[in-house]
Specification:
Length: 423
């Protein structure tokens, strides 16, 4: 038995509310369950109940056993002086106020349906499963699943918006600078994401803006800050970039001591940091006012058009400075652009609209319904449990579900878990 389950029972009134009585036999009417509190203090604030025709307004505290009140030292905490009802599973002792009057107690075990209780224990049994509801995930209706996944996707966007908000404060509300940092991190993917993130943070975006008309200088700036340029190279192009970077470093007082080292190990050549940084430089050289273009774009083809870029001429025949390769423009692939849309473009446009007091959720859902699903172990595993739409909106929702509900066992806060317990 978890205290969170008792919170769930009280919050959703999973008991015969017309028959409730205190442990002393006084009738209880719930007028308002109160506001659920996930922080310190009583479990529900501003509740209203009627006990034996006496109207009470105050807080509700919930415990497995009544004696937990004393285990948690609530009797000495002023935050609990206004508790009007003690809701417990097992009443094993009376609890008193400062004036020595007993706090009315509701013992839930007398009122909970045995089927609901069995469903709860079944869901939270200690079986070795990937998720608690693995064997029952197929049971809820498709309508419930679709609505819950949509809510989860918006919830995931809200979490990303919090990160963007933090970056905005650090950049003094410079949206273009935040976009650059998030794009850089996205271009680094999993292996070089943090390195590219620190690289982008080491550059004042005003420098990017000043160099946008010269893609080679942009490339020198990014690769130099990333520690990819060697002095006295036998490759003329690398030497040229190195000298350009030394000039920029002096002119703009650049410092890359806090930039994490980039990695080549375990990467396919198209994902080498040299290639990704060249493509990132090309994006800014070809898109002055990139943020404005992204905000104005409303359809998937428009986003694809913005990111139709490749590498500079040298990198069309190289993956590293040392070894030539077969000629290729190395254009950003649709699958890579999809990741950029999912992880950078949509969170930025969502946050920007929100900051302007606008709601672009419908537009975002329309675009994300067209972007193919991501491919990872979490998404693949859910698809083995029941048929689901193979869109990016759904894959993002499934990641949110697994990471923030399934892993921390928050089934009681999940629409699927709620449905399975209540069936």
């Amino acid at each position: 038995m978890q205290e969170a389950f008792l919170h769930y029972l009280w919050l959703h009134k999973k008991m015969p509310i017309t028959k409730l009585k205190t442990t002393l036999g006084l009738p209880i009417s719930i007028i308002n369950s109160g506001q659920h509190n996930a922080l310190s203090g009583p479990d529900f604030f501003a509740a209203q109940v009627k006990i034996d025709n006496q109207h009470w307004a105050g807080n509700i505290e919930i415990h497995i056993k009544s004696s937990d009140w004393y285990v948690h030292n609530h009797e000495t905490d002023p935050a609990y002086y206004n508790v009007i009802l003690h809701v417990v599973w097992d009443h094993d002792t009376d609890v008193f106020r400062q004036d020595n009057t007993a706090i009315p107690t509701l013992e839930l075990r007398e009122y909970i349906d045995t089927t609901l209780l069995a469903n709860y224990y079944k869901l939270f049994s200690k079986k070795q499963t990937w998720i608690n509801c693995e064997k029952a995930f197929h049971e809820p209706t498709q309508f419930l699943i679709n609505n819950w996944l949509e809510r989860l996707y918006i919830e995931r966007l809200e979490r990303k918006a919090t990160t963007i908000s933090t970056l905005l404060k650090q950049s003094k509300n410079n949206w273009e600078a935040v976009l650059f940092i998030m794009l850089a991190k996205n271009f680094g993917l999993n292996i070089n994401g943090e390195a590219f993130y620190t690289l982008a943070q080491s550059i004042n975006f005003s420098i990017i803006r000043k160099l946008q008309n010269n893609v080679q200088q942009l490339e020198a700036l990014l690769m130099g800050q990333g520690g990819l340029l060697r002095a006295n190279s036998q490759e003329p192009y690398e030497n040229n970039l190195f000298n350009t970077y030394q000039y920029l470093k002096t002119k703009y007082n650049l410092d890359n001591t806090h930039v994490l080292p980039v990695q080549f190990f375990k990467l396919r050549p198209p994902n080498f940091p040299t290639i990704r940084l060249s493509q990132l430089a090309s994006i800014y050289a070809q898109n002055h006012g990139l943020l404005s273009r992204l905000i104005q774009a409303k359809t998937l083809p428009e986003f694809y058009d913005i990111f139709q870029v490749g590498c500079t001429a040298f990198w069309q025949t190289h993956y590293t400075f040392q070894t030539p390769s077969k000629a290729s423009k190395k254009m950003l692939t649709k699958s890579f652009i999809n990741l950029v849309i999912i992880n950078t473009v949509v969170p930025i446009t969502f946050s920007y609209a929100k900051a302007q007091g606008q709601d672009n959720t419908a537009e975002i859902l329309n675009v994300m319904a067209q972007v193919p699903s991501e491919k990872n172990q979490i998404v693949s595993r859910f698809h083995t449990l029941r048929p689901l739409a193979k869109t990016a909106a759904v894959s993002q929702a499934l990641i949110q579900l697994k990471q923030h509900y399934c892993v921390p066992n928050k089934c009681l806060e999940c629409a699927i878990g709620n449905n399975l317990i209540s069936k």
